[in-house]
Amino acid sequence: KVKSNNLDVKVPGSEMETEEKGTEEESTRESDSNILDVSSDYPREKHISIQRHLADLEKLANLKEGEKKPCPLCPEEKFRACYSHKLHRHLQNLHWKVSVEFEGYRMCICHLPCRPVKPNLIGDQTLSKMGAHYHCIICSATITRRTDMIGHINRHVNKGETESRFITVLAPKSSHEVLKELATDVQVVPNYSTPQKTDSYFNPKMKLNRQLIFCALAVLAEERKPIECLDAFGATGIMGLQWAKHLRSSVKVTINDCNENSVTMIQENCLLNKMKVKLSTKEDDNDEALGDGEENTDTIEVTKMDANVIMHLRSFDFIHLDPFGTSVNYLDSAFRNVRNLGIVSLTSTDISSLYAKAQHVALRHYGCNIVRTEYYKELAARIVIAAVTRAAARCNKGIEVLLAVALEHFVLVVVRVLRGPSPADDSAKKVRYLIHCQWCEERIFQKEGNMVEENPYQQLPCDCHGSMPGKTAVVLGPLWSGALFNTGFLRRMLLEAVQYGLDEAQPLLKTLVCEAECTTSKHLATHSPCEENKQEECGVYIKTPNASAESCLVPGKRKSNEVIRNAAKRQKAENSAEHPAFYYNIHRHSIKGMNMPKLNKFLHYLSEAGYRVSRTHFDPMGVRTNAPLAQFKTILMKYSTPTYTGGQAEGPLHRAEDLQAGEQAAAAADDKVEDAEFLEDDKSGVADATFTKDYPAHCAAD
Fold first, then answer.
1. Of 200, 274, 450, 476, whose CB is crowded by the most CB atoms within 10 A?
2. How far apart are CA 497 and CA 508, in angstroms?
3. Cα-flanking dihedrals φ and ψ of residue 344, to 5°?
4. 583-642 placed in CATH 3.30.56.70
5. In 192-203, which positions are buried (b, 16+ CB within 10 angstroms) versus exposed (e)?
6. What is the rounded average pLDDT of the residues 83-91?
7. What is the pLDDT of residues 52-76, one digit of tens each?
8. How far apart are the first and last CA of the chain?
9. What is the reported pLDDT for 290?
10. In what order do the strands lie in the sheet with 622-625?
11. 504 or 702: whose pLDDT is higher?
12. Where are the domains of the chain?
């Protein structure tokens, strides 16, 4: 007998000589809290080292203040009896932290002489040290190393052996926290916001992302009904539940996850929202329905598969990918079976590589060379779209970008799939390299063609290479060079956001509509409702609720009517003016010693000069415009005021020279005149006029 905390552990002498590694435990132990009577069907009880919580392990020691207690998992010669605070640290650090977790249970390390150890010449100290082991919760084997124990459990799982041979007490379910978002209740674990600690990860900061995806799906549901949509990485199932609860019969929702705990959580959340659950696994073809569904007849299919497997096996109209980190590993299977004119949306959270903080990772995942620029967020969106384009082209499919959003925590891309080699070729041609000047932040996409140019710097509008020493530009990419937004789709997303009361998504969608049209917010509502419903997407008319009979063609049908064909060509010509690529940061190009004008006033000044201009969601101080960088700097300097005249009102320094300055800027852009020389000349001209007007002749001469 070995005495340990009122617990008698019997180790027969014959077993000490004959038992080897992996033998089953023959002794019985009694515990005050967690052990039930042994039934005839199951002759074993779980070992005391297998517990659910640290508090259950402390109950075995019967901790009391002012009394010394021995450790229940260590013999007295290894760890003597001590007070409660020291024993608590011992149990936590020496037993609980090095445990192996399986289905809510922790298999703590045990130092009791349960396992036979070969005799040695050193003594009992080494004997007790070598006797540290783990007890398997499934087959009761004793294994020495933690890594071997993890592999042992994995072999049980691979064989389908997950039922314990021990009699265990069904511990009460941990109190889950219930969160509510968009009238949908989800049950989450207490540490739901920590992805390293839980399988069912739920991020409250991604609420805006979920609302944008919901609006995109709602727009697609208006085009054709019903549609099959897939949430490939369900986690808690919040996104799929929102789809099914609000769109109802318009969608057939499938929520997938490869983790068993996440699938269980999804089923519980479906029942919590009074939804029927249709279980489907890769091994079993027979489906099983759970839930009463008395108040709501909607059914959600829950699958437990790898995301690549389910997308290869089935076809969907809408697919959303939101894995941990990059989503490039799932693009090929996503475009393999997606239906024509369907939508694929993906959320990338590997912002360290996309935002040029880990450039080698971006090269490894996306095959793209990038550097940190002032427009790094838009650069990240174009990197992801380029990877999507190449994956779709491998499946003989093209894409049309409907939405591209890059915020602090994620990059969201929504594309429409166009089947056929011709759309695939057209999309692949839009993947090009970018020439970026590191001195003035000027940028331009390389010209199409395979011929090598003698001097690639000639493509840049600036002349930094001629005035600065060394190499001034870098080649970035390959990147997506096409449009990032579809105005008609964004307007219908805004209507859906207003209909369903998505308050957080409405301001962003308004900004995106202005950015897509490259106009300011005051011009947002100038279009009539008829024009909003007559948007053309990917060469066909998309049916909307208020569209006329001529514009309500079924997607994919050939347009036989000559009048409708001419209207489509005319509308395509009107919408062909895409928004300018990239943007300028007003702080990056500010003049030292000058106070810049307000951003909205500066946008007005650029618009008065005849350029398209808008704000951008990528950067709160960014300006998207088709004005050259030289003209951008000229207008910024003209409407800036010196720092020392703080009381002077904002405005141009000299109205009489506006026309002359504009002509000089246009000539500088065409002839590639040096920016520094032009700004110096303009500044000297302004200074001469100022002195002539405001000061006496002798002061001006001085």
1. 200
2. 11
3. -120, 125
4. yes
5. beeeeebbbbbb
6. 84
7. 888 888 888 776 666 788 888 888 8
8. 108
9. 57
10. 584-585, 622-625, 613-615
11. 504
12. 50-116+130-159, 488-517, 583-642
